[in-house]
Amino acid sequence: MKLDSKIPEGSISEKWTNHKNHLKLVAPNNRPKIDVIVVGTGLAGAAAAASLGEMGYNVKAFCFQDSPRRAHSIAAQGGINAAKNYQNDGDSIYRLFYDTIKGGDYRAREANVHRLAEVSGNIIDQCVAQGVPFARDYGGLLDNRSFGGTQVQRTFYAAGQTGQQLLLGAYSAISRQIGLGRVQMFNRHEMLDLVKVDGKARGIIARNLITGEIERHSAHAVIIASGGYGNVYFLSTNAMGSNVTAGWKIHKQGAAFANPCYVQIHPTCIPVHGINQSKLTLMSESLRNSGRIWVPKKKEDAEAIRAGKLKPTQIAEDDRDYYLERKYPAFGNLVPRDVASRAAKEVCDAGHGIEGNATNEGVYLDFSTEIQTKGKQSAYAKGNHNPTAEEITALGKQWLEEKYGNLFTMYQKITDENPYETPMKIYPAVHYTMGGVWVDYNLQSTIPGCFVAGEANFSDHGANRLGASALMQGLADGYFVLPYTVSDYLADEIRTGKISTDLPEFAEAENRVKELINKFLGNNGTKSVDHFHKELGHIMWNKVGMGRNEQGLKEAIEEIALLKKEFHSDVYVPGSADELNPELEKALRVADFIELGQLMAMDALQRKESCGGHFREEYQDSEGETLRDDENFKFVGAWEYKGDDISKEELHKEELKYEFIKIAARNYK
C-alpha cells in the first residue's frame, strides 16, 4: 500500500483555490447518468447528498435511523467555528488554521486544516440562507461565543442546540432533493459490506433493519459519512446506535485506518452514576464560557461532600481550588479539551473528587460568579445603578437562561439538582474520535471511488479536536469539498454506464454478510452482546483511556484478542434474520468494535510519545504536560488490514510536513 496524500503545490493560502481550478468536471447533462451512494445522513452525509443531488447526480442515501433528523450530529450543542472576525478581536483564516493545528498538538495535515479554515465562513452564510436560527446580538447581527483552545470569539451558536438546528438545515436541503427525485432515501438500512469491482468501490450490501432483507446497491462512487467510533468504550457521549461498522468494513476491503488511538475525552460530562448505566450525557463546552471549574482544596471537604455531609455552596471561596485558572492563567477554564480532562483526572486521583460514585470522580462547574457579573451588567443596562442582591441574582439567572436554558433544564432533569442554585457536577468522558479512515486531500480513501467525510475520516483534527470544530468539518466536507473532488473522480465514469448488481462481486459480498449473520444466529452461546460490549469498554477505558502505558496497552491487546475468541464462541443472539432484530444489529457492530479496540491499543503502543488526547504516562514533562517526539513520531499512522488476526495489521506512515506553521511546545499558560 502506498499513501499518496495528493497535497497540491504552492502557498498554503492558494492550494485549495488552485486545486479546484484544475479539477475535472462533469457536464450537467452527464450527471444524471451517474449514481452516488452516501452512507450516513448526519451533517457530512446530508450535506454531501443534498449538494450532489442539487448538482444533478442520482444519489442513494442510507441511514440506520428512522429519519436523518436522528443522526448524532443533533447532539452537538455549543456551536460551530468560523473565521469571520465579527467580534473584531483579531480573528482570521490564519488564526483559525493555527489554533486548529496547535490544538491538535501538531499532528494534523496542514493543507487540509487550512482549507477547513478557508471555507468556514461560507458554511455560516450557507446555513443562514437555510434559515438556521443562529443567536444574534442586540443589533441583530450574528453573535459569537468563546470555546476552548482559542483567545478569540469565533463560535456561532443557536442556544444550546446548534447541532440540531444545523442538522435541520441540512435535512431541509436533502428533503428538497428527495422531493425532486434526485436523492433516494433508505431509512432503517445499515451498510454491512463494500463491493469492489476491478479495485474500485462500486456499491454496498445493506440490510433492511425492519424486514431483515439483504439488498445490493450499485454506484459509481461511495461516500462514507457514518460518524466516529467512541462507543468502542461502551460508555461514551455518543448515541447508543453510533458505530464503526461502515468504516471498518471498508477497512477490511483495503481502506487504511489512520490514527485509531486518537480519542477525545470531553471534560464537561455528567459523571457516571452506576454500573448499569448505558451512556453518558455531554454538557456543552460552551458552558465553560460562563462556569468556573473547581474542587475543594481540602481532602476532608471533598470527603464530606461525597458523603452528603457538606454542600458545595458551604465551601468558602478561599477553600476552593480553581485548578485550571491556577495552572493555565492565559486560557483558564478555556484550555483545550484534552488539557482540561487530564487536569480533572489529576485532582480526582489526588483525592479531591466530589461525586459519590464508585470511583469518587467529579469536579464542579460553578456559575455563581457569572450570575453576579451578568446580573450587575443587566441591571446597569436597564438603568438600575444600585441594584439589590436579589435583583442582581435574578437578572443573572435570566441572562444564563437565555444563553444556556435548555442545557440547564436537561441537567436538572437528569440529576434532580438546580444548576442555577448549586454547581454542576462534571467529569471527562469519551466523546469524539480524531482517528478514522485515511483519506487524501480529495477525501478519497486508499480504495478508488470510496470517499470518507466528517468524523469517519481522520483528516483535520490531529491528536485533539478543538470544540465547535466537528460541525465545521462535517459541513465543510459535505457542502464545499466533496462536490468538487467527487466530480473530479466521476469525470472518468460518464461512459461506464449502469453498474449491474448481478456481478459476481456483489454475490460474493452478499454471501459474506449472510454467513456472518447466520453464524451469530446459530451460535447458541450463553452471554448477551451487551456483556461483551461492557467487557470491551472496561478494558478500553482502563488501559486505552485517558492515561496509557506500555504494560497496560500490551495487556489490552492480549485481553481483547481473548475477548474476540470468547465473543464469537459464546455470544447469544436471539430471534431470526428476517425480522426487526436489535440484538443482531448490536452483535454485528460489537464484532467490529472488538477488532478496532485491539488496533487502537496497537496504535497507542507504537506511538511512544504523548500528544493531544493520546497521553502515554511514560512521556510527560516535569509539569505533567504532553511530551511529543517530533523527530520520530511526526507522522500519520495508517494501518492496512491483513486478515482476521488484527495483530498482523501493517503500519504505514505519512510524514507530516509543516511549511507554514512553526512547530513548538504547546503552551496554554
UniProtKB/TrEMBL annotation:
<dbReference type="InterPro" id="IPR011280">
    <property type="entry name" value="Succ_DH/Fum_Rdt_flav_su"/>
</dbReference>
<dbReference type="InterPro" id="IPR027477">
    <property type="entry name" value="Succ_DH/fumarate_Rdtase_cat_sf"/>
</dbReference>
<dbReference type="InterPro" id="IPR030664">
    <property type="entry name" value="SdhA/FrdA/AprA"/>
</dbReference>
<feature type="active site" description="Proton acceptor">
    <location>
        <position position="337"/>
    </location>
</feature>
<keyword id="KW-0249">Electron transport</keyword>
<dbReference type="GO" id="GO:0008177">
    <property type="term" value="F:succinate dehydrogenase (quinone) activity"/>
</dbReference>
<dbReference type="InterPro" id="IPR003953">
    <property type="entry name" value="FAD-dep_OxRdtase_2_FAD-bd"/>
</dbReference>
<protein>
    <recommendedName>
        <fullName>succinate dehydrogenase</fullName>
        <ecNumber>1.3.5.1</ecNumber>
    </recommendedName>
</protein>
<dbReference type="Pfam" id="PF00890">
    <property type="entry name" value="FAD_binding_2"/>
</dbReference>
<feature type="domain" description="FAD-dependent oxidoreductase 2 FAD-binding">
    <location>
        <begin position="35"/>
        <end position="471"/>
    </location>
</feature>
<dbReference type="InterPro" id="IPR036188">
    <property type="entry name" value="FAD/NAD-bd_sf"/>
</dbReference>
<keyword id="KW-0472">Membrane</keyword>
<keyword id="KW-0274">FAD</keyword>
<keyword id="KW-1003">Cell membrane</keyword>
<dbReference type="GO" id="GO:0050660">
    <property type="term" value="F:flavin adenine dinucleotide binding"/>
</dbReference>
<keyword id="KW-0813">Transport</keyword>
<dbReference type="Pfam" id="PF02910">
    <property type="entry name" value="Succ_DH_flav_C"/>
</dbReference>
<dbReference type="GO" id="GO:0009061">
    <property type="term" value="P:anaerobic respiration"/>
</dbReference>
<dbReference type="GO" id="GO:0009055">
    <property type="term" value="F:electron transfer activity"/>
</dbReference>
<feature type="domain" description="Fumarate reductase/succinate dehydrogenase flavoprotein-like C-terminal">
    <location>
        <begin position="533"/>
        <end position="668"/>
    </location>
</feature>
<dbReference type="GO" id="GO:0005886">
    <property type="term" value="C:plasma membrane"/>
</dbReference>
<dbReference type="InterPro" id="IPR037099">
    <property type="entry name" value="Fum_R/Succ_DH_flav-like_C_sf"/>
</dbReference>
<dbReference type="InterPro" id="IPR015939">
    <property type="entry name" value="Fum_Rdtase/Succ_DH_flav-like_C"/>
</dbReference>
<keyword id="KW-0285">Flavoprotein</keyword>
<comment type="similarity">
    <text>Belongs to the FAD-dependent oxidoreductase 2 family. FRD/SDH subfamily.</text>
</comment>
<keyword id="KW-0560">Oxidoreductase</keyword>
